[in-house]
What does this fold into?
Amino acid sequence: MKTYDAIVVGAGHNGLTTAAFLAKAGLDVVCVEKNDYIGGATVSRNLYKDWLYSNCSYVCSLLRPEIYRSLELHKHGLQVTPYGGSVTFMENGDYYGSYHDPEAAYREDVRFSRKDADAHKNYSADTMRQCRLIRDFLLRTAPDPTSFKPRDLLELIRIGGKINEMGEDRIYETIRFWTMSVAEYLDEFFETDVIKTALSASGIIGTALGIHSPGTAYVLLHHYMGDVDGNVGSWGFARGGTGAVANAIAGAFQAEGGELRTEAGVDKFIVRNGKAAGVALDNGDDIRANVVVSAMDVKRTFLTCMDKSDLPEKFLKRVENFKIRGSSGKINIALDGLPTFPALPEGSPLYLADMHFTDSMERMERAYDDWKDGTWSKDPYIDMTIPTTNDPTMAPPGKHFMSCFIQYCPRQIDGRDWTQEDKDGFQKSVFDQISNYSPDFKDLVLHAEVRTPQDIENEIGITEGNIFHGELTMDQLMFNRPVPGYAQYRSPIGGLYMCGSSNHPGGGIMGAPGANAAREILGDLKRPNTVPENFGDD
Ligand SMILES: Cc1cc2nc3c(=O)[nH]c(=O)nc-3n(C[C@H](O)[C@H](O)[C@H](O)COP(=O)(O)OP(=O)(O)OC[C@H]3O[C@@H](n4cnc5c(N)ncnc54)[C@H](O)[C@@H]3O)c2cc1C
It folds into this structure.
């Protein structure tokens, strides 16, 4: 039987990134994927006629430019174009728009409060400072603060230097920022409810937390720290949907001689004498390699695909305690035409923006109360985009694809699995919400794919369908992600590595966990490093 140099389990974008950098170093690599398509949560799927749905992730910003350039993803068809601003529709018939153009943005804030318009500059500067700090950590392995290894000590000194450069006041502010709630943070800048509401959403998207929960200010950074073409904080659409990202990375992997096998689900990791020896597939086949890399989340990796007897008890306990909670749903819709939004002036650039329908902090928190009560939000927060206003390739001419990301939506309803009736009720709450602001919306719907956390878990294998493979709270970040003592992509099993979003620096279409894992593996194998350094572009 052939023995590979490395097996990567899971062809999501992180698994593919690890596989591509290992193959680039000359390793003989196979990437195995349980589904008959690749991409995991970074996928475009043709589920209705000629429509292409980005049926999980839908917008791009976080993908590290170093990875993009190093793997030459443009040569494999990846093109990301920015889209314009966002809008929050209000119950009183007005709307709050957020524009890229600074003058338009200032004028819009002034419509609500001159004080807030002035405060917005300070807010943007403050969050950008936090982004600069965190961006520097993304393509680096988090140092272990308990280690005396020279590399950990040197990295700790480097980080200490960075923090020291910030000066006394900013150090205090940064520690507050990393631990406070997004609502408290926004209260320090703004007085207008709808402005705070519009900004607060980035603190709770993808989390099982509310805007008043400690730690949600930090989550803002996961929505601000990326860039499109160097514009930090911008978001864009991948042409052809987010599957174009995974397809391009897969193209780079295959161009280096990598082998991709779909419909090859892993049942168990094979462990011999405490070391990884390969994988046993669901179909009964075994594949051999001394390096095995899991791109699945940490719970699925160690609680489902391992014999517990192979793992230390303390480690297992920590994996069990790692928080991965389903909190978000998705509805993908084929539209017969572009819906109208009477609150917007005709020809408004906000027709190209992402759209929201929650206009108060009270409504935002109440949406979370429903999740705590074990059901979907009856007045949901929706992040709605129409990618075809930017990329006509995703639907037939004149038709549109609408993507609705919905907060909050639990993994179980009142402690039991979802029924079709529940799914219909969830869809109704979303459709009613949109049609309150767009009277022709419902008539334009040709097809809708409703995805609960349970569906996402079943299809992609992410525990509870949590979009980040685990909450992004301080107790689960940096050297604590996913497990203290195992935050450098290694595991208690020799030769078994982790490269998915449960690892530093977390979820989103970023590629950083995948690239960092590849660097560590190549270091252990004493192979030349193919993973790019941080550009240090700030
Ligand atoms: C609904 C939704 C919306 C999102 N929206 C955005 C967004 O707009 N922008 C953004 O940046 N991020 C978004 N995210 C987050 C982002 O998509 C994920 O964090 C990221 O794609 C995870 O990538 P990954 O490679 O780490 O893991 P995954 O994409 O989860 O990949 C894991 C892979 O492993 C495979 N697998 C699982 N079990 C097995 C097995 N036993 N054997 C073999 N293969 C297996 C899966 O099929 C999958 O292909 C969203 C996520 C979701 C779910």
About this structure: The chain is about 35% helix and 20% strand. The radius of gyration is 23 Å. The pocket of flavin-adenine dinucleotide is lined by residues 9-15, 32-35, 40-42, 56-59, 62, 265-266, 295-296, 300, 328, 330, 405, 456, 460-462, 467-469, 500-501, 507-509 (CB under 6 Å). Residues 114-138 form the longest helix (25 residues).
